[in-house]
Amino acid sequence: MSLLRVCAFTKCLNRRSLFERCAVVRVSRVDRCQLCLTRTNGAARRIPETLLWLQQRNFSSLIKREDGKKRALERFQLLDVLEARIQQLQSDVLDVQHVKVQVIKAPSSGRGGPPGRGPKNKTQEKTDFPKSAHSGTKGASKSQPSRWMEKLSQEKKNKIKKQQHLQQKIQKTVDEKPAPKAKKSKSSQMLPGTSHKIISSAAQKTITTVKRNKGSMKLSDAIRAAVSAPVTSTAAAAATATAAIPHKVSKGKGKDSKKQVPSREGQRQSAKDAEARAKEIAEVEELEKRLSQQVSQWASSTNSERLVVDSDANTCGDIQSSLRSYLEACVFAGDIERAHQFLLSQHRTMNRRKQLNIEMYNIMMRVWAKKGTLSHIGRIFILVEEAGLKPNLGSYCAALECMGRTPNCSPRVINRCLSQMEEDGLSVDDLFSQCVFRQDERDMLLRAVRTVQPDYQPKPNTTLTPCASPLVQDFYSQRADHQYPKLDFSQEELQERFKRQLSMEQACTVTIDSVEVAMPVTENMTKMRELLAEHRSQWQKTLLQALRESKMILAKTNTKDYRLNLYPYLCLLEDREYVDIMIQSVSSLPPSGESLKILARDLGNRLYTKYCVQQKGRNQIVEKLSNIYNAYTDLLAKDTKVYDVLPREQWCQLETEHSSGPTLQGDETHWPYTVTVELGTYMVDLMVKNLKINSDILNPACDRKLIPILYHMYTFRSTRQVGFIKPHPILTQMLQEAMETKLTFDSYVIPMLCPPVPWISAKFGAYLLTPTKLMRAIDGATQHELLLEKCQNLHAVLDSLNQLGTCAWRINKPLLDIIISIFNDRGSDKLDIPPPMSEAPKIPHFNPQDPSYTSTEKAHMKREVIKAKKKCSEMHSLRMDALYKLSIANYMRDEIFWFPHNMDFRGRTYPCPPYFNHLGSDVTRAILVFAEGKPLGPKGLDWLKIHLVNLTGLKKRSSLQGRLEYANSIMEDILDSADNPLNGKKWWMNADEPWQALACCMEIANAVRSPDPTRFISHFPVHQDGSCNGLQHYAALGRDVIGATSVNLMPCDVPQDVYSGVAQQVEEFRARDAESGLKIAQVLEGFISRKVVKQTVMTVVYGVTRYGGRLQIEKRLKEIDEFPKEYVWDASHYLVRQVFTGLKEMFTGTREIQDWLTESARLISKSGRTVEWVTPLGLPIIQPYHRTRYQVLKSTMQHINLQISHDAKERPDTVKQKNAFPPNFIHSLDSTHMMLTALHCYSAGLTFVSVHDCFWTHALTVDTMNKVCREQFVALHSQPILQELSNFLLHKYCTGLLAEVKNKKYLEYRRLLLLLAKVPQTGDFDLQQVKESTYFFS
Q1: Could you tell me if 1293 and 1164 are in contact, meaning their C-beta atoms sit under 8 angstroms apart?
Q2: Which of 104, 617, 664, 724 is the most exposed place for a label (fewest CB within 10 A)?
């Protein structure tokens, strides 16, 4: 209970007498805790005189009318308890000094008030906190004590006993020199000027003290003070043990230590404890020394220093984003008055003013700067000062721009502005190098500056910071041997392609032909298409009118200026553009419906994309982008000179040369997730209410009435009720029967028609105009963007993404035609071509009210209906996915195209187009080939044959020579598959990847039949796949010889298959248990195979639990027809235990590293921090797993409950943080290896793309790519990766805590310190052997 409520209750007991007996404590405003201060501020109002009202206000209940004497007695006793509780709370709060506080006497008049609201003429007295509770009345002493008093008395006795026990324990066990006594302190062990806290656990209770320094404490002094504090021997032993074993073990040790008696064994044990304590102190002192040496380096390191995300700055992040996006929307829509009034209304109220930042004031300054009204900007500067904010570069830029637009502006005014800017530590050069300009703002700024400094020239920002990572320093500094590849296009062709791509992105949508157009058109199809076209035209008119009426209502109902509403967002585009987006979403709605939240999010995102594209057009970015891109093509075209710079470097140089005009890297605010969903929900509501159709359109026998084509309904997903938007069956039937020939996509869905814009920062790259994030994140998560913005050296990461994006592709047309023919026939489940909906099972219809059905039959029929509906929904989803991919491929069949890339938060790279890309299924991969062809050369044909055998899934344990011989032995089947894929022997259909196998058969056939196979120009990508890549990284980290051999890091004559190795070991365990008579081991005889254990072995390295592994094995066992189904449960339980045991024996180093990572993440997240680290290439990574909070989004349709698990204000989710850290860390390493390989392949002139740990290149350059791949793996793991991780984590999570160690649980802090410093030991494996390993990637 807070002090405020105690004081209020004191008043309600007796307004005069009690205040004379017991002074009410009033803590000064400076010394209050934040919680009490908040409560006090929130309750600063006069308390009415009525006692009954006061009791109801504070406690929501009435005290029954009883005997007055008895009630007074209980009140006094309760008051004693509450006063004691106040002291207990104050004494237990850490870091609170025993200072003098002000106490006021109660006013004698009848009217009272909250503490601090008494009459001004009352004198103030100063007193100490009372050391014991004050007694009540005589009646209280005579009567039987209540349960409150008994509890208080018992609590006091326990507390005294604990203190005495601790004092005795400390005197016996502490060998160090005792600390000097603190004056007026309850504990003799406290240092001067310190506070204390008892830290209790099942093992020990220890008093830890740290001296408080008013100045800054040095790192070494802080650690020394923390370590030299009196600690019991059991605590030291427990803390040491917790670095390696669970906490429960230390509890047990603590209990044993209490039972020790003085004896020789006890003395020996004491000596051992002292020795262990001394060893621990020495270890911590050594750690202190190492940290002290490195802390200065860390402090100056850009990577480390800039990676700390300021949580305080993010406290109002969502609110500030909402306010800023609202202001920008108002300004873009031309509603300046609304924006101005909104800013003023936010500024006038203190609570809302706190949510404003300088950028929001700058938005309005920019508006007035465009209008040349300097007086308005001056008023905003006054508002900024009132808000306690400091003008930044954007503020002065707007002011100077306005002066540049003002004719005959006084130089004295400009000089005054420049002087003020210099006083704030800002320079004119900073304005031109750091500000983001729109339209002609830069030119106006330059005009203003040259009014007072006629010869001023902005300094070009040509300083390129060298890459800090030692892995790529030679790559950037030694370029003499680099041969950057050129594209097979002239400069004119590339410029023409740029115009086409620009036009497509400006339109924001692309309409293409569906591959179903080849089907014969029936009379019914024609009729349905005409009906749909007619109704769409009517729906557009209806929605247009409804939208305009709704906007008029919204514009008039905004009675409070400080309230956010959707009106500005509905004025960003033309009304018809909103309607087109809504109509488009109706056509793409699945028959089973879509979640309202997902549908609303998609609609909101489409609006945001259109808004961003139009904003760039208005800011005159398009013209400047065209000029720079046309010059950029000089680097890529084949008919221009050879450059020795990378695409990113060339683009930055061109931006410097074209400095005039707007900045290409805009500062647009991303709409918050809540705004996007709310806007989308508003549009869905318009659609549901206004889109209607006649009920008799398909069946004239029905009564004619208008019915909605969309329904808002609810369904259950697990235990949650979810709002759904479902199309009417009439609309679904019309769409299915019409089989329309056109599909409309957002422009970013289509691959780019020109090379992507190179990534030059976290905010600019990939598409020309479409907004794209460098790092993918959950909707609403911003911590990744903040980290990337603060990280100044991402050159290697950006250059690798640019290399992947510059690879040109084209369509394998012969194969595409075969796939489309099967797709338009009846599909094929075996070949992964989804069948049409005509092949879907019919949903059974029955009347649940029919008495002829028994309850069992009804239940069975209901299950059949649910099963059929689920099957239909899955078939529709798969069919539409295939339709989209094949239609896009067919649209691009005669084009050359590119895939821009970005990455997830771990650094793994992905193509931006979501449907059709080389990360897709076997079908989409088979359709894609390199646009550039290269001759096969002497070994290219052999690599094609080996690649074909790899695609079949056969000969996994064979050598490369064995695979080649097998391919030569089946050459007849290969040629037959190429010549007669659908009518021949169909050998290719039995491969693991049938479509890629068929494509490879065709390439081999063409090469073999060419006059000279070595000169045959091949466009076909050959894959080299890592051998259980996650375990390869673990084995390299731990230098584990056995593990390295199992995953082909060690050179071998034949490839080692870790899955077969584990299966063989599990079989040995099974045979042993079967001999012992274990029933399930006997049942499993003959059923343990590579396939059964493969998925579990593969995913153990990525954090799969035993529960997840059991489900995987259960699924594999169910696929075996011969295995008795009644033993599946027991068998899966048994096998998952054996698989984990086998892996633990094979990969001892892996398990140690995994446990260290897991425990580190657990302790870090338990301390309230999220786990962060930096990859060896300098990419900052943060795990976005926080405790889920729920936010209700209110709309006219329904209240949407948003589950937000990425909110940085919430505490970390410890379980997710610790389980995800090992796999995410390994993923960050495999992405680093891929990026290094990509960079060095690019410098060698190779074509290179990747699918995570599967690398692609031409058959000619496979050997070169393999060499680069192995060299970069060795280079990566030659770095002290785990030691650098330890250093980073120590710096981030430990150095910052040393100065405030008293505010933390010291034992947990020390456990984290020791654990992070104790890097797992490594084995004797020689990394250089990887360079000679043929099957490392094969």
Answers
A1: yes
A2: 617
* Nearest residue to 594 via CA among 510, 524, 684: 684
* Distance, C-alpha 68 to centroid of its chain: 63
Residue tagged active-site, from 799, 1253, 1292, 1302: 1253
Residue 1032's SS3 state is helix
CA 497/CA 754 separation, integer angstroms = 5
Q: Which residues pair with 1181 in a beta bridge?
A: 1173
Contact 1304, 1164 (CB under 8 A): no
Each residue's pLDDT tens digit, 814-826: 999 999 999 988 8
Residue 17 has pLDDT above 60, yes or no: no
Global pTM value: 0.77
Looking at the chain, the number of H-run helices and the number of E-run strands are 52, 28
597, 885, 934, 1094: the active-site residue: 1094
Give, as one character, the DSSP assignment of residue 993. Answer: S
Give the span between the Cα atoms of 598 and 1059, in whole angstroms.
Answer: 40
Considering only CA atoms, which of 460, 682, 667 is closest in space to residue 566?
Answer: 682
Query: CA-CA distances (angstroms) from residue 1158 to 68, 452, 1030, 1216, 1253?
Result: 62, 61, 16, 10, 24
CB 479 within 8 A of CB 673: no
Name the nearest CA neighbour of 1082 among 1073, 1091, 1072, 1074.
1074
Q: Spell out the SS3 assignment of 1179-1225.
A: CEEECCCECCEEEEEECCCCEEEEEECCCCCCCECHHHHHHHHHHHH
Q: Which residues lie below 8 Å from residue 546, measured CB to CB, with a gap of 6+?
A: 686, 689, 690
Q: Distance between CA atoms of 800 and 822, rounded to whole angstroms? A: 38
The DSSP string of 567-597 is: TGGGGSS-HHHHHHHHHHHHHT--TT-EEHH
Q: Where are the beta strands (DSSP E) in 451-541?
A: 509-513
Among all chains, which residue has been given the structure tokens 């609304």?
338
* pLDDT value of residue 265: 60
Dist CA 487 CA 816 (whole Å): 25
Distances (CA, A) of 200 to 87, 134, 194, 239, 1308: 20, 29, 19, 14, 12
What distance in Å separates the CA atoms of residue 710 and residue 539, rounded to the nearest whole number? 12
Report how far residue 987's alpha carbon sits from residue 1171's, in angstroms, rounded to the nearest whole number: 50
> Among candidates 1228, 1221, 1218, 1282, which has minimal Cα distance to 1252?
1228
Which residue, among 798, 908, 762, has the nearest Cα to 1224 in the 3D structure?
908
Query: Once rounded to an integer, what is the mean pLDDT over residues 281-304?
Result: 55
Annotated catalytic residue, options 1025, 1209, 1216, 1318? 1025
Tokens at residue 1064, please?
Answer: 């063989």
**Would you say how long the chain is, in residues?**
1338
| CB 752 within 8 Å of CB 899 | yes
DSSP secondary-structure letter at 245?
A: S
**pLDDT, tens digit (0-9, with 9 covering 90-100), for 1272-1302:** 999 999 999 999 999 999 988 887 554 444 4
Question: What SS3 state is found at 195?
Answer: coil
Residue 1025 among the catalytic residues: yes
Q: Which residues contact 757 (CB under 8 A, 6 or more apart)?
A: 629, 651, 764, 765, 766, 767, 768, 900
Q: How many angstroms separate the CA atoms of 121 and 1185, rounded?
A: 56
- Confidence band of 991 (pLDDT split at 50, 70, 90): very high
Q: What is the pLDDT of residue 67?
A: 53
1225: region left, alpha or beta (phi > 0 left; psi from -120 to 50 alpha): alpha
Q: Hunting for tokens 């109660």 — which residue is that? A: 106
Q: How far is CA 1312 from CA 175, 1165, 1295, in A?
A: 25, 11, 12
- Separation of alpha carbons 404 and 409, rounded Å: 7
**Amino acid letter, 54:** L
CA–CA separation, 144 vs 626, rounded Å? 92
Banded model confidence at residue 543, pLDDT cuts 50, 70, 90: very high
Q: Residue 723: beta bridge partners?
A: 714
